[in-house]
Design a protein that fits this description.
This protein has 7 helices and 10 strands. The protein is of the alpha+beta class and 269 residues long. The chain folds into 2 domains: 126 residues, Alpha-Beta Barrel (N-terminal domain of MutM-like DNA repair proteins), CATH 3.20.190.10; 121 residues, Helicase, Ruva Protein, domain 3, CATH 1.10.8. The chain is elongated, with a radius of gyration of 20 Å. The two termini are 27 Å apart.
Length: 269
């Protein structure tokens, strides 16, 4: 599943390839991807220029010259990229934008969970109002992290995945940050020891910054192992393998229906 670093890579690459490009036409191969909106509504995008793509948490917004904005959520397997000729589009494309120079923007999504909608400024404000602070922004301080966790007794690992508390952290990077900070994933979020607050804040930013660099260099598709190998995970999906610090076998547990990987010695539950 694309997480903050992968979505960031998609946006950065998209801007390099398609910023200031003009949309000739839109073809929706799977109408469910834009529901409850109708394919006919997307004719409003014809002959509009893409001003820029931007990211908020795991959401992508494409600002257009006619004042409209496209909201794109990749969900589990979505991907957004540009090909040099619209005739080369893959059969798995769920929606595609032919550009006036005959290039094509592809929205590909094998499991068809992704969504694309035309949104208003009020819609964007509503989406962003439900999101917590961006963990890579300067405004995300240890104090902000403390405030984000202070109102929930949920275990720290699921709390880090709560987009209303901190925006953009996904399953891989939550497990990785907790390992780096030596915090048991079952620790109640509002009972995080004071001496662990700064290490967790540092770990979140360090892990995400490393992952953003890695994803931009190597990310291709959701679930592609190239990204994870480049990032160099310490615990994620390493059940039974030795901890990189103490050599204890990495363990796995299920929290909030998601796999959590941790070291039983470094992060005793």
């Amino acid at each position: 599943m694309p997480e903050l670093p992968e979505v960031d890579a998609v946006v950065r690459r998209f801007n390099q390839a398609a910023q200031n490009a003009t949309i000739h036409s839109v073809k929706i191969e799977r109408p469910g991807i834009v529901a409850p909106q109708l394919p006919a509504q997307f004719k409003a995008l014809h002959n509009t220029t893409i001003l820029a793509a931007r990211r908020r948490a795991k959401h992508i917004f494409l600002d257009l010259s006619n004042g409209l904005t496209l909201h794109i959520h990749l969900r589990m397997t979505g991907n957004l990229y540009v090909l040099p000729d619209y005739r080369f589009r893959p059969h798995s494309a769920r929606l595609w934008f032919r550009l006036t120079d005959n290039r094509v923007i592809i929205f590909e999504d094998q499991r068809a969970f992704g969504r694309i909608h035309i949104v208003t400024p009020a819609d964007i404000e509503d989406i962003e109002s439900k999101l917590g602070p961006e963990p890579l922004e300067p405004a995300f301080t240890p104090s902000v992290l403390k405030q984000s966790l202070a109102t929930t007794r949920s275990p720290i690992k699921p709390a880090l995945l709560d987009q209303a508390r901190i925006a953009g952290i996904g399953n891989i990077y939550a497990s990785e940050a907790l390992w780096h900070a030596k915090i048991p994933p079952t620790t109640p979020a509002n009972q995080l020891p004071a001496n662990k607050l700064k290490p967790l804040h540092t770990a979140i930013r360090k892990v995400l910054q490393h992952a953003v660099t890695s994803a931009y260099a190597a990310y291709t598709n959701p679930g592609d192992p190239i990204e994870s190998e480049s990032f160099g995970v310490a615990v994620y999906d390493r059940e039974g393998e030795p901890c990189l610090r103490c050599h204890t076998p990495i363990a796995r547990m299920v929290q909030a229906q998601r796999s959590t990987y941790f070291c039983p010695h470094c992060q005793p539950c």
